[in-house]
Structures are given as C-alpha cells and as structure tokens.
Amino acid sequence: MRPAAIAAQTTAAHSSASVAAFPYARRAACLILALSLAACGGGEPTAAGGQPWQGTTVTEGNVTTVHTESGSVWQGTARLVEELSIGEEVGEEPYMLGRISAVAATDGRIYALDAQVPVVRVYDQRGTHVLDIGGGGQGPGEFERPTFMGLDRTGNVFVLGQGEIEVFSPEGTPIATWSLEELSVFAWFNTSNVGPDGTVYVPVTLEREGMNPGTWKVGYAGINEGEAGETRPLPEFDYEAPVIEIVRRNEEYVMVASISPAFVPRRAWAVSPYGSLVAGSGNQYRLQIHHADDRKMVIEKAWDQVPVENAEGDWYRDLLRADLEDVEEVSGWDPNSQLPSHKPAFEQIVPDSNGRIWVIKPGPGIRLTECNEEPGDADEYRAEPCWLDSVLIDVFDEQGRYLGPVEAPSEFYGMTPRTIQPRPFIRDDIMIAAVEDELGTIQIKRYRLVLPS
C-alpha cells in the first residue's frame, strides 16, 4: 500500500476528520477527509433530533407532485454498516472475483454474476460458496457476454446474455431460454430489472437515427414466459445534454460514439422491480415516476449545488483532451471551453425492492496529494488520478417523501461521471454491492442500513 494524503475541497465548514482506506484503480491511499455529514447532505442533520419532513403533495388528474421543502422523515443521516465481505486477492477460484455485472440476494443466499468467467456465483449469508449457476457457451443453461442477472420471488435466476435470457431454478437447473431476437435490446445492465413475478425488464432501441447510439430513441419492455409485453418509451426532457461526437477508424471498422464532458448533467433512468420507470435529468432535482397503470409521480427537492473547484475542472479538462488525442474526427468540443462550474443534481437512480428510490449524487471533489502530475496519456491519468468525487445519497419513499441522506462508504468514491456499478441490490435494510478494496481486489459486500437513533 502506498499512502497518499487526500484533502477534501469544499466550500462548507469542516467540522470533523476521519481516516479511511481509499481504493481506486488497483492502488490504495489513506483518505484524510475533513467533511461533516451535514456538509455532504446539503444541510441535513447528522443525528436524530433534526427537523421533520415538511413538504407539499398536489394531485392533478393522474399526476401527483411531491415537493420537499425542508427536513426529512428520518430527521438525520442514516449509515451503511458493513456486515460481510466476499472476495480474495489470492485464494480459491469462487472467491477470486473478476468483472461483476450484477448482484442480488434472497434471505439465505447472495448472487453475483461474474461476466469475466462467465458464471453466477452463489454464496450463503456467511459468505461461503454454495454453487455456480450457468456458464459460458451457446447451449441450454449457457450464456455469452452476460450483462445482467436478477431473481424473482421464488428464487429463480434470470441472466441476460447476448440475444437471450437464460432462466434457472434456485438450485441452478436450466428451466428455459427466452429469445430476444424480436427486440433490439441495449446491453445496459444498470437499467434492467426483474419483477417478483418473473418479468424481466430490458432496455430496447425504438428508433435508430444515424450511426451514433447516443442519438437513438430508447425505451423498455417487460418479458414474461418468453413473451414481450408493451414497449414503453422514455419520457421527453426539456434539457438536452451537450455531447462530443467522436469517430475512430481502422481497416476493419468505423466506430461512432458520443461522450459527455465531466460534470455535464445527463439523463438517468431505471426500471423498478414492479415495472415503474424512474427517470430524471441531472440539470435539476426532479424525478419522474411512470407507473405501468399510467399514474405519474413527480418528486422535487431543493438542490444545494456542489461547486467544481478550479483546479479540479482544469484536471478533468486535461483528461478529456488526452482522451481525444487519437480520435480522427471530433465535433461538439472546443478545447478552450470551460467545464460546468457545479456538479449535476444527481448521476444515478436506483429503485429498490421496497418501492424506495435511492438517488446517487456527486459530492465535493477530493484532491489526491500523491498523483501523476505529468501523465503521458489518458490511461496514466486514470491509473493515478489527481481528483476523485465523494458520493452523496438521498432516499425517497414510495409516497415521494424525502426519507433523508445516507452516508456513503468511501469505497463508492471514484472519478466523474460517477455511478455505482454494478447497480447495488437493495431490499429492506440490506444492500449488496460490488466494490474494490485498498489492494484493488474485487469484493461483494453486504451493508445494513442503520437509521438515526
């Protein structure tokens, strides 16, 4: 381990200090982070005894708007306390994890899709490996390039692979293969979900305009017993995120893609286990929830903008320049332009199995005092970064009320744009997430949500 002092850059007053292990890009650093939870949580209290939730709820037709004015239901900041860690740097194969694409859990087991093998690893609640489900290939019970895995209420396992969904019993016996040939499925594991009744919700392409996938219109469809239901489009937003379009060519292919500069607000969306679409755009703190029965809810909350430090913005702009050095064609980018002066309202939306909505937000930038000050290329920027983002979390209940902030574990911190990948599995007071430890070892961790006492 190579320690490096990290100074938190924030305009808020510092009221506490802590030291924690900080993993990133397979290297470790000691985190000296002087941030109070009140500063991170946008002024919310850090202990019980804070202000109760105050807000307004207005229903017009089939649209209910819930606006949080102040306070929170929890009247304080909740914590995610680690209870279990699975994964070793050196050890038996089931505990040496690779590229984890999805996690899930029942009362008795923890599931992790390791797309690098590929296989679904199954562990008991003490972290002991129980069995493997599926494997690589094209036969029954096999999958190629899997991107998502989920469970129904009976414990059946659904794996989204290349062009199909493989269904397994809780014991790992192949049950069925559902073809996706009639759907143009996007491999976005962070938007897919599985309902209690075994409906698998997958993102689909509705209209392809040009070669750039960033300009295509997308939506989602529910698949049950191999039959696709109604395809529902994403809602329209007044805000359109600026993007940089890039073209790379070689003798075999032409790649067209779009990227967003750091701190540019983007569209975020996900489907709940009950088929509700939750979507929003990070230029404002406003979430839209579209239920399958055409009811709609809008959640609004005051937004304390997190500033981008001048040095932080300069570093990310230099990283973007390095990313674009070997690109043949670039449009939509002025090398002399400045990045946004503040960070988006949120980066990621995570609906859980209890109807709550977890909103993942970028926090104050963290300056690493030991970093590569003169990187030669984009890979070196990312291998030894000079800036990272802390992570803030807000939680809302199914009625749209603001429950309160949650203190995010430092292993969630990373580079912008920041989303927790794979998307955590959350049910009741348990969260299952895949993270890296201070040595870069991939681990599956179980956290318990502890409310203010």
Short summary of the structure?
This protein is mainly beta and 453 residues long. The protein has helices spanning 37-40, 310-323, 378-383, and strands spanning 6-8, 18-24, 27-33, 54-60, 63-70, 78-86, 100-105, 109-114, 119-124, 129-133, 148-151, 157-161, 164-168, 174-179, 193-194, 200-207, 217-224, 227-233, 244-249, 254-259, 267-271, 277-281, 286-290, 296-301, 329-331, 348-351, 357-368, 387-396, 402-407, 425-427, 430-436, 442-450. The radius of gyration is 22 Å and the shape is globular.
Number of strands: 32
CATH architecture of the domain at 79-231 and 421-453: 6 Propeller
Radius of gyration: 22 Å
Distance between the termini: 36 Å
Count of alpha/pi helices: 3
* Proportion in helices: under 10%
CATH class of the domain at 79-231 and 421-453 equals Mainly Beta
* CATH topology assignment of the domain at 79-231 and 421-453: Neuraminidase
Structural class: mainly beta
β-strand amount: 35-45%
What do we call the CATH homologous superfamily of the domain at 79-231 and 421-453?
A: TolB, C-terminal domain
Mean pLDDT: 86
Overall 3D form? globular
Low-confidence stretches are 1-47
How would you characterize the largest beta sheet? 9 strands, mixed
Question: What is the topology?
Answer:
Elements: E1 6-8, E2 18-24, E3 27-33, H1 37-40, E4 54-60, E5 63-70, E6 78-86, E7 100-105, E8 109-114, E9 119-124, E10 129-133, E11 148-151, E12 157-161, E13 164-168, E14 174-179, E15 193-194, E16 200-207, E17 217-224, E18 227-233, E19 244-249, E20 254-259, E21 267-271, E22 277-281, E23 286-290, E24 296-301, H2 310-323, E25 329-331, E26 348-351, E27 357-368, H3 378-383, E28 387-396, E29 402-407, E30 425-427, E31 430-436, E32 442-450
